[in-house]
Amino acid sequence: MSIETAVQTLQLGPKGPVVPALGVGTWSWGDSLFWSYGKDYGTEQVQAAFQASLDAGIQLFDTAEVYGLGKSEELLGRFLQTTDRPVAVATKYLPLPWRLGTAAVADALTASLKRLQLPTVALYQVHWPFDFFMGQQTLMQALAAEVKQGRALAVGVSNYSAQQMQQAHDYLAQWDIPLAVNQVQYSLLHRQIETNGVLELARQLGVTILAYSPLAQGLLTGKYSRDTYQPPKGARRLDPRFSRQGLVRIELVLKTLQEIGRRHQRSPAQVALNWLITQGNVLPIPGAKTGEQASQNAGALGWSMTPDEWQQLSQVSQSWLG
Fold this sequence. Notes:
GO cellular component, one term: cytoplasm
Strand order of the largest sheet: 3-4-5-6-7-8-9-10
Protein name: Aldo-keto reductase
CATH class: Alpha Beta
Number of strands: 10
Strand content: 5-15%
Pfam family, one: Aldo_ket_red
Largest sheet: 8 strands, parallel
CATH architecture: Alpha-Beta Barrel
Structural class: alpha/beta
Domain NADP-dependent oxidoreductase: 22-316
């Protein structure tokens, strides 16, 4: 592959908005089921994360109607009223079994726009590739209609396989609407899209990869290690990757991140995010629950690791390709 070391902005698909090559995932904003919103942190902290992101030049915020059962969208909508800086909002539609016909998509977007206090979103995505009774063609037709009406600037999908992504792309093309993104899990510890055809096809189609969990839910930050073992709070406590044995398995990856970070005066998290950004067609959207976390994430921009360093990280994380 060719490494594009100068890429600091990305266009979302062939015709979508141009944004900095790093965004913010807001799953943890308002979510108390998986995350600990309302216990360890709250509105004040996530608003600080919003402001710190803007201060660092970050513009893309990714949310969804199901995050905190609408709370994430509501918080983001409230924060948007406090700034006149450019912000690109991406949200998602969940194709539940009882949502039938194109009107269901329109109604869901209407509700999201109300919570966000916006007339339009930069990106509207399908959260999961569920078919149920609507079918992909009807779903893509509904999404295309929202672009035609100006309520969404671009259309994306999330968690789609290569075959599903190709199908969505072909259906949207019938209405002359490009598929802008496929949002998938992608990090040094989750590299399946490199071997299952998703990354290759995305490049062929001009589809941008939005990488969620780019820090493997905190494993790549260096916060968790065998020597100072302390399990995370919330649902992650049950994840075997956060066990002492799981942390032993990633020691070489963390050590390599630290070594490269020392050369560039960057943290392990900033190096892990830069590994994704350096590829050129990938936009990571790490979560940020505090202003400090948001500022730390933003340090992934403004520099590039060398091709040799990129290859070194790719080599030590090969176990996570499949």
